[in-house]
Amino acid sequence: MIRMKKLALALTLTLLPVLGGHAAELRGTGDLGLVVERAAGSVQIVDTTHRTSLGRVQGLGDLSHASLVYSPDERYAYVFGRDGALTKIDLLEARIVKRIEQAHNSVGGAISQDGRWIATSNYEPGGVRVFSADTLDKVADIPSVTADGKASKVVGLVDAPGQRFVFSLFEAGEIWVADLHDPKSPKLQKFKAGKEPYDALISPEGRYYIAGLFGEEGVALLDLWNLDSGIKRVLPEHAKDDPKFPVFKMPHLEGRALIGDYWFLPAVGRHEMLVIDRRDWKVVKKIPLDGQPVFVIPRPDERQVWINFALPDNNKLEIIDTRDLSVVKRLNPGQAVLHMEFTPKGDEVWVSVRDDDRVMVYDTETFAELARIKADKPSGIFFTARAHRLGL
Amino acid sequence: MIRMKKLALALTLTLLPVLGGHAAELRGTGDLGLVVERAAGSVQIVDTTHRTSLGRVQGLGDLSHASLVYSPDERYAYVFGRDGALTKIDLLEARIVKRIEQAHNSVGGAISQDGRWIATSNYEPGGVRVFSADTLDKVADIPSVTADGKASKVVGLVDAPGQRFVFSLFEAGEIWVADLHDPKSPKLQKFKAGKEPYDALISPEGRYYIAGLFGEEGVALLDLWNLDSGIKRVLPEHAKDDPKFPVFKMPHLEGRALIGDYWFLPAVGRHEMLVIDRRDWKVVKKIPLDGQPVFVIPRPDERQVWINFALPDNNKLEIIDTRDLSVVKRLNPGQAVLHMEFTPKGDEVWVSVRDDDRVMVYDTETFAELARIKADKPSGIFFTARAHRLGL
């Protein structure tokens, strides 16, 4: 494994393609995906049509909590490493196109609506940096320093319609909207969000940005169609009567489980999922679960929500029917179920099972196991169809 | 132009790739699209990243009202010709992979949720036929013959979750749901829909199938999550008081303009668009327009709806802001504006202008013209991102 921690300059690395040992072949890219192998610092390229592995790209550094986005043509991935590295990968040639150390500690990134700019959100030294998707040349630096001169960690960075990026400042408790029409000088709008926003999501159409708050109850909701009305603090009525009710301590908000009028949200620290009406933020139902939920991810047709769990229940999955809001199935994929990714039309789901070194593929209708793919301590799974979705 | 009308057998035609004269190159397929050139019987391959034409595939026969779908890997297109031909095209090599005459008169088709089956809906001899997406070998024939022994034209064919196809029988006034889990023997469920269903759509998540009725007022709504409850006939209260109110004579239903709680529907024969609350089917607003609307298509971020018009106003476009339900912009792309297709994240829209032999590309935020691409009497525009969406 190539370690890149000390690398200060942008490099162009060309690893040998590993597509079965022969040259890259002409093929479509709409059915490809990447599986993050966190311990090895590699990603595995998968083919969802044939449920097979096509190759591996190594030398990506520290991939704990790594995430990635895709170029609009679904050929390239941009991998955001925890060590602050940004790596551009060519899926067709199974190689690193370019790799830069853009910060010391990073937690993700986003690609602009038009596919031309990559933004990274950084813990250390903080701030958002913007790079050309083509060359990875830096085009803008947005320090997350507030009027009091203090720097904040940046979290919950997403792309939004209108060539914007939206992100949260943990220490400052603010949400910033950056307009990238002129990428070299982003225009910023800043909002007081609440105490310690720690993660965020954007609704599928790109209108609502919701940040979870670590330092207090509730979530901060920003309507990007009505920025003038500012942040709305949302707290279900239930929580008002029960100060210990940890409604919105969501460990991960990426699931974007907004289905019809209902948000499906994990209640952290409880063995429950909450169903909340988006119109009045009242709790419609509390669904008992077999563990503390981590990811709550809707099947693309919205008929099911799949849930994985924190320790000691991280060997399980539960599936909720969104019509009658009940658990319809329990699965036991194996030790340390870390992530789930649905095929774009929802007929299959791919599940990473870290400690058993495999990815499991399930039929989402029959729950039958369709395939197992070997992977080295797999964590995140990302299919190229994300290229066509706002906020992913 | 190669005419294929008399061709009875499946043929494999290999036309020369026309990608600038050189061999097909390694590239992603997520940013490709096809523009139907109806008079010439060809399709033009376009690159949405660079807003350029990559080549042309000829010999597709009668392409009036032609439509197409994409394979999950976004490499292949299946073109449904009006003359009953089904043609599989390789976008990377710009060639016909295979072409069959599967009926005498056809109006479209669909690809199954898992990408393995292609279904065609036929006027003459009627019925739905199912083919292998790989080989175009026929695997099933579903005659649209009702209990009285009469055949019907099939319209409004879409794919639905659960490996299903849904379609309507014009003469019989029925909606059929075909379960393709065993593709060689589809299981059918049949519903009385109303008089002369002539077109249909499915909501983006794949739950609601809505057929427009030619022979009577109202639309037929089928909830695919609750088939036992059967067809619901929907008629806005407004229409009940005004028998001449032609609410639901929609010329085309493909736009799927369901945004939040509102359906945006063209009122045929009137210069109006209707905004209807999906919860009670009441008319929220009638928006006056400059002509008789044809297509009503939402921008992917749902903030705008774009509308084109029937003669004599088919040189115009109007854009509605979905927040305040008002017209925010009028454009005049040219003579005979036939179709619009948004880039997946909605920053651009491509518009076919038949009689001016061009496709216009607009920035959907500034409404600035970004490019013009020459095309021979262009009609439908289809981007590969459709491969990842249910019902498209």
TrEMBL record, chains A, B:
Superkingdom of the source species: Bacteria
Keywords: Signal
Signal peptide: 1-23
Keyword Signal: yes
UniProt-listed CDD domains: 8prop_hemeD1_NirF (cd20778)
InterPro entries given in the database record: Cyt_cd1_C_sf, Haem_d1_sf, Host-pathogen_enzymatic-act
Name of protein: Protein NirF
Source organism (scientific name): Methylomagnum ishizawai
